[in-house]
Design brief:
Strand content of chain A: over 45%
Structural class of chain A: mainly beta
Radius of gyration of chain A: 14 Å
Helix content of chain A: under 10%
Number of strands of chain B: 11
Radius of gyration of chain B: 13 Å
Largest sheet of chain B: 6 strands, mixed
Number of helices of chain B: 0
Distance between the termini of chain B: 37 Å
Strand content of chain B: over 45%
Shape of chain A: globular
Helix content of chain B: under 10%
Structural class of chain B: mainly beta
Largest sheet of chain A: 7 strands, mixed
Number of strands of chain A: 11
Number of helices of chain A: 0
Shape of chain B: globular
Order of helices and strands of chain A: EEEEEEEEEEE
Oligomer: heterodimer
């Protein structure tokens, strides 16, 4: 399968713990996005990378959230000192910017439950 | 600024048509449409760039009115497989390349 993959698919943690999620994009895609989605809402932008450079980060994102894409391939999203409000589906998407726009391919997501 | 989608939900019988609207208060560069089925990731349908073009494939098409910052998704002769939640994602004309998604329109197609 050459689509976007995410690991783990599900994560249950206790409040205050740190969690890290991984995203492997489609290999030829140079852009990688992280979103958060809660029930009944659309995906909410968190941050995105072009190659290894983090180009934009949501102002809504607290300092507890950090993302990396060290070699321009896979990316990790870390949440420190998790809170119950962090419970959500975390989606990763990858794309390649083209002159006529870009199609983002989404991964299956990591569902985080904070107890 | 999050785009506003309408209606929030629509129920159809197979073969009926539907229109889903997406409206933004900001000048837009592009509008993207996605469909998400329950428990699955969003799937790309189409992208419309500013210029008022209309796109479509099969029985799903969309338009983008740049002056009104509105886009509409048209589903004709709906099939059971069209059921899901439809999201529009908008890209601002101001320089940020991120997508801002609406809250979605839940479409249910019944036999």
């Amino acid at each position: 399968d050459t689509g976007v993959s995410q690991d783990p698919r599900h994560k249950i943690t206790k409040r205050g713990q740190n969690v890290t999620f991984r995203c492997d994009p489609i290999s030829e895609h140079n852009r990688l996005y992280w979103y958060r989605q809660t029930l009944g809402q659309g995906p909410e932008f968190l941050t995105y990378f072009q190659n290894e450079a983090q180009l934009e980060k949501s102002r809504l994102l607290s300092d507890r959230f950090s993302a990396e894409r060290p070699k321009g391939s896979f990316s990790t999203l870390e949440i420190q000192r998790t809170e119950q409000g962090d419970s959500a589906m975390y989606l990763c998407a990858s794309s390649r910017r083209m002159p006529l726009g870009e199609e983002q391919f989404f991964g299956p997501g990591t569902r985080l439950t904070v107890l | 600024q999050q785009p506003v989608q309408s209606p929030q939900a629509v129920i159809l019988r197979e073969g009926e048509d539907a229109v889903i609207n997406c409206s933004s208060s900001k000048a837009l560069y592009s509008v993207h449409w996605y469909r998400q089925k329950h428990g699955e990731a969003p799937v790309f349908l189409m992208i419309l760039l500013k210029g008022g073009e209309q796109k479509g494939h099969d029985k799903i098409s969309a338009s983008f009115n740049e002056k009104k910052q509105q886009s509409s998704l048209y589903l004709t002769a709906s099939q059971l497989s069209y059921s899901g939640t439809y999201f529009c994602g908008t890209e601002s004309a101001s320089g940020s390349e991120k997508l801002v998604f609406g809250k979605g329109t839940k479409l249910t197609v019944n036999p």
